Structure formats: structure tokens, C-alpha cells
Amino acid sequence: MPSGFPQPRPLPLSYLIADNVVFLTIADKSYPRKLAFSYLDELSKEFATTYGPRVETVRKPYAFVGFDTFMSKTARLYRDTRTAAASSGLDKLNDELQDVTRIMTKNMEELLWRGDSLDRMSDLSTSLRSESEKYRKAARNINFNAMLRQYAPLGAIGLLILILLYWRFG
Question: Which positions fall inside the V-SNARE coiled-coil homology domain (predicted)?
Fold first, then answer.
């Protein structure tokens, strides 16, 4: 380089690879690395949400040019490091709140499912109780009929003998 020209200073390069897509940013040396990676992470999440399954099938250059508007808006948010740091903190807090909300929703659904299952089990036990009562009565009737079939002929013969004895000696 000629001596009259300013020497270029190397700029920090940050990149993130997610789902076979490379996200790259070049920032000033004083820009915090955590914010750069937070920016890249936000881009990767939005890109995966918007274009995720289509990445492998696209063969044309500039297929995702529509993503530029999101990148520009997000870059504006991250330009001021104070705003970006607050935004990053809020994003993390928001993510944690969403996680807690998902967990609570899942727990509530499980509780409702258990309550529904308990109601179903109560109905089934009531039905089982009434059915078992029917079967118990049916079993008594079957046992009584079996006993009649077994002892009725003997009882009839004994009664006939008693009648004959009474008639003959009585």
C-alpha cells in the first residue's frame, strides 16, 4: 500500500451456520460480539420459520430476496448498541416467558385430560358396578335352576312316597 493512504483495519466477522444456511455479519470492532451473535440468531430463527423446508429445493439465485426487509429492520434495531442490548435482554426474557407459557399450557392440558379421564373412570366404575350386580343376580338364578334340576326329581319322588304312605296308612 502506498504510504499516503489510510491502512485498512480488519473488521470483526461473525457468522452462524444453522440448517445448512450461513448467516454472516461484519461489524465495527467496538460492536459487542454477543449482540452480533444475537442478531445472527434472530435472523436464523426468522429465516427457518419463513423459508425452512424450501432451502434444500431452491436452485435459483436470489430466491430469498424478500428476506432483505426483515434483515434491514432487524439491523436497524441492532445498530444502537444500547437499544440492541435492551432488545436482546427483552428477547431473552420474552423467550423465557414463552417457554413458561408453553409449559403451563401443557400442564393445564394434562390436568384437564386427567380430570376427563377421572370422570370417564368414574362412569366406567358405575357401569361396572351395575353390570356386576346384574351378573350376580343371573348367577343366583342359574345356581337355583341347577339345584332344582338336580334335586327336583328326588323331591318329587319323596313327596309321592309320602302321599302314598299317608293315603295307605292314614
Answer: 89-149
